[in-house]
Structure formats: structure tokens, C-alpha cells
Amino acid sequence: MSDHLILALETSSTICGAAMIKGQDCLAFREEEMPRRHAEIIPSFVESVIYDSGQEMKMIDAVAVSIGPGSFTGLRIGLGFAKGFAFAHNLPILAVPTIEAMAFGLAKHQPTLGLVLSHGRRIFSQCFSWQDELPIAASKPVVNDLEDLLDDLDECATIFQWQCHELISTDLNATTTAPSSRWVGLLGSKKYDQFVIEKPYELEPDYIAPFKVGIGK
Predict the structure, then answer these.
(1) Chain mean pLDDT for the chain
(2) Among 24, 28, 183, which residue's Cα sits nearest to residue 102?
(3) In this structure, are 80 and 113 located in the same domain?
(4) What φ, ψ does residue 37 adopt, rounded to 5°?
């Protein structure tokens, strides 16, 4: 675990958030559900959490960003801001997997399957194991149609979900959670050496579901 001072960003969904993390302490955070306003809001959130944390901008050691999967636009905004901030201050970026950070936020339950709404009836999913109270990705995140996902669902899994409650059966007994800049920063601190990217010039979000522009036939 690092003791770096980390600015953490979460923009992978309708939630926009920023946090200041030192070791395993969250010094300050601010989050709100603000669909389609991330680019407008994230600079003021960052300014606010730096001020509220009692730290100075020059003291920040790294920027942690939720890298996906998630909203195409949200992920681009978050990483774009992270790159700009990191380049301006000569800082590394911590590329923190979104669903893994959400799992870490539920460490006391040690969930083994995360479900996050993509769009329509398509759902991102990822499996985890646990070691030393940390989630370990047992598979890469994938996106599937709801029906295919339910057909292959492990009945023994401990499940969490975000924005899937209207689609999945209540019989699954899934814990509801949400993306958070706190978990992005705290997991980034725990797995600093694993997630750090010293020269993130070509770093891209983990979209999973490809973004395509075209003319329908």
C-alpha cells in the first residue's frame, strides 16, 4: 500500500466525483449524480476537494481515474481531465478498473460478481476472488445481453449491481452499490504499483462495448 497523496476521479456513469486520498484515508470527496454535466462540473469538484483536504496542488503525487467499463462519454471526460492534470503537473496516472473499485467498496461482503448496466438490456459483468481483503479480477469485464447473462449466472455468486435493479430478478439478492471516487482512490492506493502508468500518453478507457458511428440501413 502506498502513502501517496492521490487525486481520484470517477466519471464512468451518471455520477461525477472527485476525492483526495492519503494512504487509506479519504481526506475529502464530493460526488453528485449529474448526467451529461461531467465536463462542466469536474474542474470545480477537483478544486473543492483539494481545498477541503487542506492539501496543496503541488503536494499531489498521482491521479487515479476510473478507467471503465462504463459510459463512453463519461470515461473520455474523466481520462481527458486526468491526462491534462497529470501532464500539467508531471504526475503518473493510476488506471483503476471501475467494477473492481466498486467491489472494493463492498469488501466486508467480498462479492464475487459485479453487474453494471451498459445500455438497453446489455449488462457489464466481472467475476472476482479475494485475497488479503482485496478483490482479484478472476475474469476480464464483458458485456452481454441480459438473457444470456442470466442463463450463465452462477447461483452461488455473491452479487452486487449498479442500475440493473429494474432488469434483474429480486431473487438474485444483489447488493446495490454505486461507483465512487473514494473507492477508485483507495483501491488505487492499495494497488499503486499494479495500476500506475508513468507515461500515459496512449492510455485509453476500457470501453468493452465498442462505440460505433454509422448510418442505419
Answers:
(1) 93
(2) 183
(3) no
(4) -125, 15
Q: Which residue has the higher pLDDT, 2 or 10?
A: 10
Q: How many CB atoms lie within 10 A of CB 168?
A: 18
**Is the Cβ–Cβ distance between 131 and 137 less than 8 Å?**
no
- The boundaries of the domain holding residue 189 are 5-98+179-197
Q: Do the domain assignments include residue 208?
A: no
Which CATH number goes with the domain that contains 171?
3.30.420.200
CA distances from 184 to 157, 159, 171 (A): 23, 19, 29
Same domain flag for 189 and 87? yes
Same domain membership, residue 85 and residue 35: yes
* Rg of the chain over all Cα atoms, to the nearest angstrom: 17
Which of the 8 DSSP states describes residue 36? T
The cell numbers describing 123, all together, are: 449488462
The stretches of the chain forming alpha helices (DSSP H) are: 38-53, 72-89, 98-104, 146-151, 181-190, 192-195
CATH code, 32: 3.30.420.40
Helix (H, G, I), strand (E, B) or coil at 20: strand
Quick: pLDDT tens for 5-33.
999 999 999 999 999 999 999 999 999 99
Is there a single domain that holds both residue 15 and residue 65? yes
Each residue's pLDDT tens digit, 149-203:
888 888 889 999 999 988 887 678 899 999 999 999 999 999 999 999 988 888 9
Q: Do 186 and 160 fall within a single domain? A: no
Does 69 score more than 60 pLDDT?
A: yes
Total count of domains within the chain? 2
